[in-house]
Amino acid sequence: MIVLSVESSCDETSVSISRDGKEILSNVVLSQIDVHKTYGGVVPEIASREHVKGITMVFEEAMEKANISIKDIDLVSVTKGPGLIGSLLIGVNAAKAFAYANEIPIVGVHHIAGHIYANHITKDLAFPLVCLVVSGGHTELILMKEHYDFQKLGETYDDAVGEAYDKVARTVGLGYPGGPIVDRLAHKGEATYPMPNIDQKETYDFSFSGLKSHIINLVHNIKQRNEILNVENLCASFQEVVTDVLVSKSLKAIEEYDAKMFIVAGGVAANKGLRTKISQNIKNVDVVVPKFEYCTDNAAMIGVAGYFQYKKLQKTDDMTLNAFSRMKLTE
Ligand code: KG4
Ligand code: ZN
């Protein structure tokens, strides 16, 4: 089964061609990072306009790279939410137009299901599994007992991990997106700054806003006292507490649900500190992390998720398929 998939939920315009939810024949990602950098974050209206400008070209390039013709495509899969509504609508409408014009069935998929299924490209998922979702908009622990069956064990009360990374980066003037920069600097520093305890005790829930406020105050006080801020040590201190809590909650869930596999999903899965801590601490279970290129937003993961959603539900969408800025993983 050949799937053409489309992702446009935030600031990446992406189209991919994949086979049987496993083999990626092409995955073209047009990033808008340079456009949004000037503003220190994604500007929704600009993002929508950039998607309009790029989407046709990205479709063509993905088809060309995969070296297939339209008649080979069996299914169209597109991110229907959650995300920026204007951005999502460009991808959903482009996918619908393509599916309608070529009489190909279409499915709308959840963006986080895509991030989760990015792991399947590396290794076939085995159940039960525990998934740590860490992106710019989500931080959740998910239990999967079979394909396309998602049970939320816990989530963040406030900021998502990626969001916290980006805010810390902005506080010390490191540019956008801040996550990869903080990660890089953390490796050059030592965790010398005291950080608050952010463990939400017995639950699988997370909270990062207190940590963020602590860092803002810390930086402010250092500046007021005319002291020198060691940015590398600050990044290392922040990364240490964040990765500690992510790994300890994951371990707890793996043990409680007797998981066979542990996977990580979302942009922060690219974090080297997190990857290292996972490989050092999570043993006796199959650990899978997506390849770097499939960690941040891309259409390949939406193709894999769409394939498994279709296989499981045996259901396609019609031309009333819409985009949703907010939606639950199980919708
Ligand atoms: O999953 P994603 O591409 O978009 C959402 O669905 O939200 O994640 C983007 C987030 C951004 O907040 C970015 O700073 C973060 O992932 N990120 C990282 C790293 N690479 C990307 N955070 C920490 N360390 C990284 N290496
Ligand atoms: Zn994402």
What would you note in describing this structure?
The chain has 331 residues and is of the alpha/beta class. It is built from 10 helices and 10 strands. It has helices at residues 33-37, 44-66, 85-102, 111-122, 161-171, 178-186, 209-224, 231-256, 272-281, 300-313; strands spanning 2-7, 12-19, 23-31, 75-81, 106-110, 129-134, 139-144, 151-155, 261-265, 286-288. The strands form 2 sheets. It has a 5-stranded mixed sheet with strand order 3-2-1-4-5, sandwiched between helices. The longest helix is centred in the C-terminal third of the chain and has 26 residues, at 231-256.
The major beta sheet can be summarized as: 5 strands, mixed
Categorize the overall geometry. Answer: globular
Query: Distance N terminus to C terminus?
Result: 24 Å
Helix content: 40-55%
Poorly predicted spans? none
**Average pLDDT, all residues:** 96
> Taking strands numbered 1, 2, ... along the chain, how are they ordered across the largest sheet?
3-2-1-4-5
N-to-C series of helices and strands = EEEHHEHEHEEEHHHHEHEH
Would you count the extended β strands for me?
10
Rg measurement, Å: 20 Å
Specify the number of helices.
10
Provide the structure class.
alpha/beta
Small molecules in complex: 5'-O-[(R)-(carboxyoxy)(hydroxy)phosphoryl]adenosine, zinc ion
Beta strand %:
15-25%
Q: In brief, what are we looking at here?
A:
This protein is of the alpha/beta class. It is built from 10 helices and 10 strands.
